[in-house]
Amino acid sequence: xxxxxxxxxxxxxxxxxxxxxxxxxxxxxxxxxxxxxxxxxxxxxxxxxxxxxxxxxxxxxxxxxxxxxxxxxxxxxxxxxxxxxxxxxxxxxxxxxxxxxxxxxxxxxxxxxxxxxxxxxxxxxxxxxxxxxxxxxxxxxxxxxxxxxxxxxxxxxxxxxxxxxxxxxxxxxxxxxxxxxxxxxxxxxxxxxxxxxxxxxxxxxxxxxxxxxxxxxxxxxxxxxxxxxxxxxxxx
Length: 236
Fold this sequence. Notes:
15% strand; 10 helices; 5-stranded mixed β-sheet; single chain; alpha/beta
C-alpha cells in the first residue's frame, strides 16, 4: 500500500469523524403526534427518490387523514434500517436493489474509466446492493491484483460531501445525491447493474393497505404537479 493511500485513508477518517460530530450536535426535529394504533405498520425510509412519496404523504398529513395506520421512520443509512428491523423497531424498509444507483469519480481525480481506479478509494455502503455494484464493476481490476479500497460510508449526505470535497476518489450514489454530485463537477462512469437486479425486488414488501396506497397515490400526484425539487427539503 502506497504512502499516498495511507494518508488519504487517514484523512478520510478525520473528515468523517468531524462531519458526523457536527451532525450529531444538531437537534433532532420533533415529530408531530401520530394517530396510529398499536398495530400500525412501521416502515423505515431513506432520503432517496424511491422513498419520496412516503416523505410527501407524511408531510401532507395523508397517512393520518386517510387513517392508513402506517408509521414512517426516517433513517440516514441502510445500516440503520437493518439494525432497526433486527431490533423489531420497524416492520419493513426499502430494498436497496430497487434503488437506482449512479457511480461517480471526484472532479479532482480526473478518472474517466473503470480501468483507472487502481490504488483509488471508493465510498459505498458496507454491504448490500450498492457495494455489489462496485465490486462487480471493478472485478476485472481485482483479478489483475490491483489495489482498490472500498470504504464504508453509509450516510448518503456524508458520502456525497466526501466525493464533492475530493476526500474520496469515487462514490456510488442514488438520487437526488447523484444529481447533486454531478452539478458539483463529479464525473459519471458507466456501470453495469449487479446480478442481484434480476430479483426485480419491490421497494418495500407488499403491504395490503388500501389507505396507504391511496395516500401514496395522492403524494405522487403532488410530486408530479410541483416537482421533486419542491419536496427535496424534506430529506434534510
